[in-house]
Design brief:
Layout (H helix, E strand, L loop, with lengths): L2 H8 L4 E6 L6 H11 L19 H12 L6 E5 L14 E5 H4 L10 H4 L12 E6 L2 E3 L16 E5 L4 H11 L6 H17 L6 E2 L4 E4 H10 L1 H5 L15 H9 L4 E4 L5 E5 L8 H5 L3 E5 L6 H14 L9
Helix pairs in contact: 7-10, 8-10
Length: 322
């Protein structure tokens, strides 16, 4: 980047990072969850153990951030009355944000990330330009702010190409009367909502990794759909009628507030924990991002294997740890 563009880019200011995190091993939290949702369902994508399991993924994600994105300003960890036991709370760069600080009272208690994500832009002190991550997302090589924002300050929206996606949805749901999976259904719902408002439909699917946003634009898009979002506030676990946060990425593109970039596995990888053969592709493809995705299909031995993999990949303690 030449000097003039760098000067223009520097006008963006601070870039913060927001995580959602939960310690599913905490007995107090488990009791609260059982009271609200009942026992975990092994085959449920909305209420399985893998949705909330904790094997210190956040610790390793933060190690990857400190190694590969030291330019990040502040880090906000959104939790439900929890704090990682290994976290150095005296580190001025990190801040714990309780659900009650940002969620409407009717949402509490909330075990549904699709609800929580609609309110992350309300975090007190959050910068206008920020990144959002789940604790199972990691950086794999050095990054700069230009990997996430254009020199003009627009978020780079990474999508994975899905040709004829709209046709296949119509074929499956309208003609074959077959229901899409929970995650795909929510993505399709968000894309359709944006199309109805802006007249633009995006075939690509989100890359399921660290994303860039403008806090002010999230609030604008949220305001357009507050009626629909208001209907899901009491969805304490994931639901087919949820409005997925991809509405903010699709909305940024449709409203001219985002820059589209299609990516493949050589830039952004999502690995299912049970697919151990895929782990080696991180080295061969050397992507910027990788995600270690848990699900109802994973077993505890898969989670322990993934934790050992991460510990070997990111062995050095970060300044966020005690």
């Amino acid at each position: 980047m030449d000097a003039s563009k760098r000067q223009e880019f520097d006008k963006i200011g601070d870039i913060d990072l927001v995580y959602l995190w939960v310690d599913g091993n905490d007995p107090v939290w488990q009791a609260k969850k059982r009271t609200t949702l009942g026992e975990a369902e092994s085959k449920s994508s909305a209420n399985c153990e893998g949705r909330y399991a904790n094997h210190d993924e956040l610790l390793f994600s933060l190690r990857s951030i400190e190694r590969y994105a030291p330019w990040i300003n502040r880090i906000f960890i959104v939790t439900d009355s929890q704090t990682p036991e290994w976290l150095d709370k005296e580190n001025p760069k990190v801040c714990i944000v309780d659900h009650r600080e940002i969620l409407p009272p009717k949402c509490i208690p909330c075990f549904n990330s699709s609800v929580i994500e609609h309110f992350i832009a309300d975090i007190p002190g959050l910068s206008e330009h920020f990144l959002f991550s789940n604790d199972d997302m990691f950086l794999n090589r050095p990054t700069t702010p230009e990997d996430f924002f254009t020199p003009e300050g627009l978020p780079i929206v990474r999508l994975k190409k899905r040709h004829l996606r709209k046709f296949w949805i119509f074929l499956k749901e309208k003609l074959l009367h077959a229901r899409s999976g929970l995650y795909n259904h929510k993505l399709d719902h968000s894309a359709a909502m944006i199309e109805q408002t802006f007249g633009k439909y995006y075939q690509g699917k989100p890359h399921h990794n660290i994303d860039a946003f403008l806090a002010s634009h999230i609030k604008k898009i949220r305001g357009l759909y507050m009626n629909e979002i208001g209907k899901i506030l009491t969805h304490h676990k994931r639901d087919y009628d949820d409005v997925h946060r991809s509405i903010y990425s699709y909305g940024a593109l449709a409203d001219g507030k985002g820059a589209l970039k299609y990516v493949g596995k050589d830039e952004s990888m999502k690995i299912s924990l049970y697919n151990k053969e895929a782990y080696g592709k991180i080295d061969s493809l050397n992507p910027i991002f990788f995600c270690m995705n848990d699900s109802e299909h994973c077993k505890e031995e898969d989670r322990k294997y993934a934790a050992a993999f991460l510990a070997k990949r990111f062995p050095e303690k970060s300044s966020f740890e005690l």
